[in-house]
UniProtKB/TrEMBL annotation:
Catalyzes the ADP transfer from ATP to D-glycero-beta-D-manno-heptose 1-phosphate, yielding ADP-D-glycero-beta-D-manno-heptose. The keyword Transferase applies. It comes from the Bacteria. GO terms for molecular function: kinase activity. It comes from Sneathiella marina. Residues 183-481 form the Carbohydrate kinase PfkB domain. It holds the Pfam family PfkB. The keyword Kinase applies. Residues 26-106 form the Cytidyltransferase-like domain. This is PfkB family carbohydrate kinase. Keywords: Carbohydrate metabolism, Kinase, Multifunctional enzyme, Transferase.
Length: 496
């Protein structure tokens, strides 16, 4: 759209408002949205009824990040009502949009401000935000872009690699074969919303911490992020799920298109799309709120899902069951899917999460890989006393997987597999690779999909576990679920 077209849209909004309606405008490069930007935008939003933000195009000085990415970051901020890329100078935009207010940081107050003349033509005002500390984001960009520095500062385990005679060439071949994989992910769709807050203080009425939201971000979660990871890692990925008839579902479909995931979605008007909100401050989660229904989908929907499943099976290398126990995978449907995969010789892996709900990972039998947490495994075998190796062996006897990755949080991962040609189990352990996790959510999903793809591509369980641990470390080193990149995994495995 041209500047004139953007101005016409904004003017149409103003036409049905009364005289007190105020449009505010903020402009900048916004290489990285840092706290100084957020405070400026909050101040601006508080001063007007409708906040317009113009993001400079790539031709402007000081730009380091592509324009579309910078615009996407600004659009995601809840204070911003309308944003667009501006190729012209700001006074030209002011002449056309005629905002009542233009807001800048206080560091500009004693400098020349070219907006002043344009505003004076019609009585607009130039405001400066309160004296919050402002810092440049350029140094952050350069540090994150340093090719000699690990993107996620992950550790390694040379002893493990030597023990299993694994070299970087092994990893190169495995990751290259990801692009040959046709993968189907089945399971619950979850939308994760992160609401970053500033703490205002302690309430005088009761001992409650009072916060104000600063930034709201939504991410694909649940089995949806498993499918998104698979696509980001190079696999040809289809995702099969059930969701509500709501905005979260609509937004998710758009994200799947962006991530290259072929989403096959059945709608169920009786359930909203699961939304999990995390209220965070200073890098810590203060409160979680989940909006969901947990009842199983009815038989009609099960038949619809199974028919969609059957349509995909002729070309599949791998099926990933990513079960969050919110009703998308009732046992009768799981049994039909497993039976069809066994008939067609399709590899299957499974994870069944039991954090705030109760699940049973042992209902997924004859899998190539199971990836439970210690608690999920103990729930499945109903034994909270035996040691970790005993837990894995007892789970294996119950549901007959080829391999088990038993995740232990900060203690890493226990790997359990049958010795080739023998009935005895082999066990090893990998430490957690990220010493300073920023957000533990999604670690298991990243490990599940990456290790599963590796196994399907012909890796040993030892190679697959290592690649999965690297993926898990990458995931917890950032806040919120973002699709894994095969290039990031390559970087961390040092195989460029």
């Amino acid at each position: 759209m041209t500047l004139t077209e953007h101005a016409a849209r904004i003017e149409a909004l103003r036409s049905d408002k009364d005289e007190s309606f105020k449009i505010g405008m903020v402009s900048g490069n916004f290489n990285v949205v840092h706290p100084g930007h957020l405070r400026l935008l909050k101040f601006a939003a508080d001063c007007c009824d409708y906040l317009v933000v113009t993001v400079n195009t790539d031709r402007r000085p000081g730009v380091l990040v592509p324009a579309e990415l910078r615009l996407e970051n600004i659009v995601a901020i809840s204070y911003v009502d309308y944003a667009f890329l501006l190729d012209e100078d700001l006074p030209s935009a002011i002449d056309l949009i005629r905002p009542e207010l233009v807001i800048k940081g206080k560091e500009h107050q004693d400098l020349h401000n070219p907006e002043t003349e344009a505003l004076s033509k019609y009585g607009g005002k130039l405001l400066f935000s309160s004296g919050d500390a402002v810092f440049s984001s350029i140094d952050l960009i350069r540090a994150e872009s340093d090719p000699n520095k690990s993107l996620f500062n992950l550790n390694t385990s040379h002893n493990y690699l030597n023990r299993h005679q694994i070299s970087s060439e092994n990893f190169t071949d495995i990751l290259d074969r990801f692009y040959e994989m046709n993968v189907l992910v089945v399971g619950d769709l979850i939308v994760d919303e992160y609401i970053t807050c500033d703490v205002l203080g302690l309430s005088r009425e009761d001992p409650t911490v009072v916060v104000t939201p600063v930034l709201e971000q939504k991410f694909i979660g649940g089995a949806g992020i498993v499918a998104s990871h698979a696509s980001g890692l190079g696999a040809n990925t289809t995702y099969l799920t059930v969701c509500g008839d709501d905005q979260e579902a609509t937004d998710s479909i758009g994200k799947f298109e962006e991530y290259g995931v072929n989403a096959k979605i059945a709608r169920d008007a009786s359930r909203p799309t699961t939304l999990k909100q995390r209220f965070r401050s200073s890098g810590k989660t203060l409160l979680r709120v989940s909006k969901l229904k947990q009842h199983a989908i009815d038989e009609t929907l099960q038949d619809e899902i199974f028919e969609l499943f059957k349509e995909q099976t002729d070309r599949l290398n791998l099926v990933i069951f990513s079960d969050f126990n919110y009703g998308v995978l009732p046992q009768s449907l799981v049994d039909r899917m497993i039976s069809l995969c066994q008939e067609k010789g399709i590899l299957m892996v499974a994870d069944s999460q039991s954090s705030s709900q109760i699940g049973n990972i042992s209902r997924f039998h004859d899998m190539l890989l199971l990836k439970p947490t210690e608690i999920e495994a103990r729930l499945a075998i109903q034994d909270h006393d035996i040691g970790l190796v005993g837990v894995a062996e007892k789970l294996a006897r119950k549901c007959n997987p080829s391999h088990i990755l038993l995740t232990l949080g900060a203690e890493g991962t226990l790997i359990q597999t049958l010795h080739p040609g023998k009935s005895e189990w082999m066990t090893d352990r990998l430490p957690a690779f990220c010493d300073a996790p920023k957000d533990p959510a999604g670690a298991g999903d990243a490990m599940l999909v990456t290790a599963s793809l590796a196994l399907a591509a012909g890796a040993t369980i030892w190679e697959a576990a290592y690649i999965g641990s690297v993926a898990s470390g990458c995931q917890v080193a950032t806040v919120g679920n973002r699709p894994l990149s095969v290039d990031s995994i390559r970087h961390e495995l040092d195989i460029w």
